[in-house]
What does this fold into?
Amino acid sequence: MTVYFNGSYQPKDAVRVSPDDRGFLLGDGVYEVARTYGGRLFAIDRHLERLRYSLGELRITGVAVDTLGQVFEELLRINGLMAGDALVYFQVTRGAARRAHGFPEPPVAPTTYGYAAPLALKFDHTKGVAAITVPDRRWARCDIKTISLVANCLANQEAQEAGAFEAILVRDGVALEGSHTNLFAVLGGEVWTAPLSNYILPGITRAILIGICRAAGMPVHERPIQVEEIRRADEVFLAGTTTEALGVVRLDGRPVGTGVPGPVTLRLRQLFLKETARR
It folds into this structure.
């Protein structure tokens, strides 16, 4: 695999990250994940805008975000991924400096790393997946796509050990999102999802699905979903760059709705796929 590291393309095995890098020592960095459909990057402008937001919130400077679209394309080309479906991962840390909680002074150059790989899915959209609910133990800035993901990892590991695909994070009785997905529910034929706040990630797929609902005349509400509501929902589905709209058919060991992906979920995924073909 050829990767991008600090401005150059090189074999992955040749990459050397300093042990003083603040991403390694402190989790001080952000990341972004985009994907392709048939070799074409999808919603890349939205992904780069979210990366710009994350960098700004962590006050990491020195990254030419506007040029990263070309970097992503080059990673796909070099690695022979210009056809089919693939993902591109890009990470930025504050850089290498003496370990200290304050920012390096004078500032250091950020560390940048990116790679492209074939997309390998571990689920079947026609069958759906299982999920569990767990307490949300993350920090209070979930709107930043930071590399500090240990709370997410612990939640997802708990899901895997329960034989589930995803862990739905619950804070103060409200079901917010998954460990690596956004969350939707269908109640009385209407689509609900948690409103944007510092407690959820502003998902790209989430925003596109909301727009699709509105364009199709499907009632959609951005409002808090109580965990009791999610448990009696007609349908529950996850949204993400790699999951698209993915039905949850079992929650905490009990069937959701009829126990198969519901009609709203399946329709939204088909409309989403049509959207990917247009861009």
